[in-house]
Amino acid sequence: MLTALDSFLDFLQVEKGLAANTRRAYATDLKQFISYLHRRGVAGFKDVTRGHITAYLIELQNAARAPATISRHLSAIKTLMRFLADEGFLPADPASEIVSPRPAQHLPGVLTVTEVERLLAAPGSESPLGVRDRAILETLYACGLRVSELTGLQVRDVDLEKLFVRCLGKGSRERIVPLGSMAAHWLGVYLQGIRPALAGRRSGVLFVNRRGRPLTRQTVWKLVARYARAAGIAKAVTPHTLRHSFATHLLDNGADLRVVQELLGHADIVTTQIYTHLTTAKLRRVYDASHPRA
Predict the structure, then answer these.
(1) Sequence-ordered list of residues with C-beta below 8 angstroms from that of 148, at least 6 positions apart, any chain
(2) Residue 266 bears catalytic tag
(3) Burial of 41 (0-12, 13-18, 19+ CB in 10 A)
(4) Which of 76, 141, 203, 205 has the smallest number of CB atoms closer than 10 Å to its CB?
(5) Long-range contacts of 115-120 (CB under 8 A, 24+ apart)
(6) Active site residue 170
(7) What is the pLDDT of residues 219-270, one digit of tens each?
(8) From the candidates 52, 73, 243, 249, which is the catalytic residue?
């Protein structure tokens, strides 16, 4: 089964062009499924039935796994089984008639504009790392980047004259995102006075640590949380919170949904439409507070 899994992961990379992080997520979920099959005495994928898959999903449910997690596992299994059937490894797809449950839609947490301003001002500009961190926070909010997109930025991806950033999103899709003047200012300060001392010519990665090595996603998560606490923000704040805030604030101020979709790098506008629920909720609150017969 592991050999078949390796072939599937190669297919995801070569044919589908999925990013390494996505392939790792598939591998992790499917290895758990394979472990379950081994415990049930299933010798190979050709012996897998619809009943095995359903029983596995029930086991995940009994283990109190979140509905979104169960849905993700099923999606991985269905994709694998379809691949094996298409390639002739299976006579039929045992997962074809299993319907994926529609996961509950959770509205993302966002910051107010005032909270964003407090967060962005939290790093001190007196230290080199403070300037770097201010540039990181400003870039996350100005461009709505995913944390993996931020840590993957190269120096050459930033154009401070034309005010744009080139980033590589999910599925290796490249997009150009405008860069705000404040973010450009802090990136300029970082690139001119801080980064050369940290990295020299050893790396082309934009954001580096004190040893000149690329920042990890975990490091960025930790620094965002640390500055949120320093800014007195009680909410749980992650890099993705800044991405959500970026999208919501654009829509609040009249941006077109299709434009926001392009800026976020969403392949499907359905993904972007979750932000309309946030702005609609705000309209409801304003209406209820302002209309005499609300």
Answers:
(1) 19, 21, 217
(2) yes
(3) exposed
(4) 203
(5) 115/231, 115/233, 115/235, 116/141, 116/242, 116/245, 116/249, 118/231, 118/232, 118/233, 119/224, 119/227, 119/228, 119/231, 119/233, 119/237, 119/242, 120/182
(6) yes
(7) 999 999 999 999 999 989 999 999 999 998 998 888 888 888 888 988 777 7
(8) 243
Q: Is 102 a catalytic residue?
A: no
**From 166, 170, 217, 226, the catalytic residue:** 170
* 158-159 vs 164-168, strand pairing mode: antiparallel
The residues that bridge with 205 in the sheet, in sequence order, are: 154
167: left (phi over 0), alpha (psi -120 to 50) or beta: beta
Query: What percent of the residues of the chain are helix, what percent strand, and what percent coil, each to the nearest 5?
Result: 60, 5, 35
Q: pLDDT tens digits for 189-207?
A: 999 988 988 876 667 899 9
**135-182 per-position pLDDT tens digit:** 999 999 999 999 999 999 999 999 999 999 999 888 778 899 999 999
- Annotated catalytic residue within 52, 73, 134, 146: 146
Task: Kindly give the residue spans of alpha helices, DSSP state H, lying in 87-180.
Answer: 113-120, 128-143, 147-151
In angstroms, rounded to a whole number, what is the distance separating the alpha carbons of residues 202 and 213? 9
